[in-house]
Amino acid sequence: MPLLPPTATARPPLRHWRTTALCATLAAMAGAAQADPALRCHTDPAQIATAPGCSATLQGPEVYLHAPAQQVLLWQLDGGTHAHRVRLFGPDGQLLRQWPAVHNGRQEIGWVTPSAGRYHLQADNPFFDTAQAGAAPVQWRLQAHGTAQPTAPASTDRPGGGVLASARLRQLQEQLALATPGQKAQLMEKFWQQVQAQGSPWLEALEGQPEEALVTFLWRAPAGTATQPHHVRLEWAMRAADPFMLQALPGTDLWYLSLPLPRGLRTSYQLVVDPVRYPAPAGQPIGRVQRIQTEQLSALRDALNPQRWHAGSSSLPTDSVAAAHAQRSALHISAHGPLRNLAEAGALPPLAGTLQHLRFDSRQLDNTRSLSLYLPPGPQPAHRLPLLVLFDREAYLERVQLPQLLEQAMRQGRIPPLAALLVGQPTREDRARELPPLSPAFGQMLATELMPWLRARTPQLTTQPAQVVVAGSSYGGLAAGYLGWAHPETFGAVLSLSGSYWWAPPPAPGSTVHRWREGDWFMQQVAQSPKRPVRWHLGYGLLERGVHGEAGLVDNSRHLRNVLQAKGYAVSTDEFPGGHDYYAWGEALVQGLQVLLPAQPPGNAP
Question: Are strands 212-220 and 95-99 parallel, antiparallel or unpaired?
């Protein structure tokens, strides 16, 4: 699943995205798990037999632990100012889980032990040799553990709200109603054979709604459990007041969820199947964040959908246990013509250009961050190469594979040759401090310290602000908008994807915050200031709607568009059918670059 920004101080609780709340709360959890004689942990596998419990903080790239079967184990890894990929190996040496290197600093990992024995956690930095760089050692801490207990399941026969929305399901229901028990078994077996051949989810036309399709997600209960209660939920990039629960078709092993969705939709998803409870002490209430954390341990790729997105774990064999958890199912509904899933799992070609991973020490901010600089293949004249400056470096490298995506777009003639600087934050907590405009310090550092340093070491980069695009998504989209507005002398074009324009500075001491107060702080700054020499492209997903009466990101972005147009700015928009999702943002970023940096027609290149 895609990952979202840590919680901002001033954001109302109802507006927290799922992983936003998870990251912020777990990062603040104090204390280690209580010692348990059944658990033994050590950084040296030879000392596991005599090791103490797992209550101490462990240092080093690897941890070995002995655990009973069916244990919920929730760990926190702290990589300092670096991002680490984490692998989990089971007692038989099989790779059970893999977490991509998309977060600097603290990272939450967890699993349920399938059997008793020795497990092996391994962390590595895919970008830097941290030993040579003198980085602090990785730290591990067991946050919580306990015997796996199921959550309260949904009923096997949840009310369907009347007539089934899907015509195909209605037909199946009618056939089952007329069949004998023996015929029902044959009907269901034939049904599942058709699903395996055609794939899931189903796509059906909606009468009178040519811009939408009815999408039906399917899940098959394991053999022998059709009459047992299950909890099956769709986990994806759309918020709602109620969870997207699948329900059973009575008397069958079929579970389903039908949703009307826009044609052209591009999204990724997983299914949360029979999650376990958070291992809290008896009598201690389990909060929403803890529930979400343990639900994610049971999130799996849709086994009935053959289209998969690597989600940052492209090296995993698609049929492996680790891939079933790490990867996500892909859905790209055709915008026109016959309804079908256009998603493709093809790998991007290898890089022809160069990609350098750098560490930058800022005197102004007194911190160190990771950068990655992509340069296209071939010689480039001095001071002429357009530049993309993009936030959330690690996620765009691992999940989006941005350099390869840019090269593909260049080969297709969609964008001109350009350089890309991917900017990381020192830690996840720094992301919430730097990307929202809490102060001008971060933007000032980029404009007056980092950019001069970059141009001094890369003379082919443009010196024209109009050819420098500052870009990002979510908090990064907000940062891009603010930096273009605050520093048009450096960043002459803004590419903002799903920008967090709900954000507002924290209230003054002693003042109160309520959910009905006027928001859209950044729009007010734009409206009240003189027009500045910067061009804008806003991309946002139609699924980014609000709940409980709140404005969603789609509403915030439309408001900003209107303000920019009223001020006379050049602004383009892309209301893409999708949500808060790196799977959608990759293509949305290329489309924004096509507008802001159009490719030169043959013969017109400078």
Answer: unpaired
Residue 247, strand partner residues: 256
Q: Is the pLDDT of residue 518 over 90?
A: no
Residue 598: how many CB atoms within 10 A of its CB?
11
Give me 341's structure tokens.
Answer: 């899933």
Q: Calculate the alpha carbon distances from 454 to 301, 304, 414, 461 in Å.
A: 41, 47, 26, 9
* Strand ranges, E, within 209-253: 212-220, 232-236, 247-248
Q: How far is CA 300 from CA 265, 274, 303, 564, in A?
A: 21, 11, 8, 42
**Residues in contact with 199: Cβ distance below 8 Å, sequence separation at least 6, in sequence order:** 304, 305, 306, 307, 341
The percent of residues in the chain predicted with pLDDT above 70, rounded, is 90
Give the other-Cβ count within 10 Å of 9's Cβ.
Answer: 13
| Residues 226-254: tens digit of each pLDDT | 999 999 999 999 989 899 999 999 999 99
CB-CB contact of 501 with 562 (8 Å): no
* Cα dist from 360 to 28, 211, 349, 364, whole Å: 27, 48, 29, 12
d(CA 101, CA 81): 12
pTM of the model: 0.91
Name the token pair of 55.
């209550």
**Exposed, middle or buried: residue 516 (CB in 10 Å: 0-12, 13-18, 19+)?**
exposed
Can you list the alpha helix ranges (DSSP code H) found in 541-605? 553-567, 582-596
The greatest distance separating any two alpha carbons of the chain, rounded to the nearest whole angstrom, comes to: 79
Rounded Cα distance between 571 and 207, Å, is 35
Whether the CB-CB separation of 473 and 579 falls below 8 Å is answered with no
Q: How far apart are CA 160 and CA 166, in angstroms?
A: 12
77, 427 contact by CB (below 8 A): no
Q: Which of 436, 480, 475, 494 is nearest to 553 (CA)?
A: 475
pLDDT number for residue 64: 97
How far apart CA 247 and CA 238 sit, in angstroms, is 19
Nearest to 204 by CA among 165, 177, 248, 239: 165
- On the CB side of 599, CA atoms within 13 Å amount to 16
Q: Check residue 327 and report its DSSP letter.
A: S
* Angle between helices 167-178 and 181-198 in degrees, nearest 10: 160
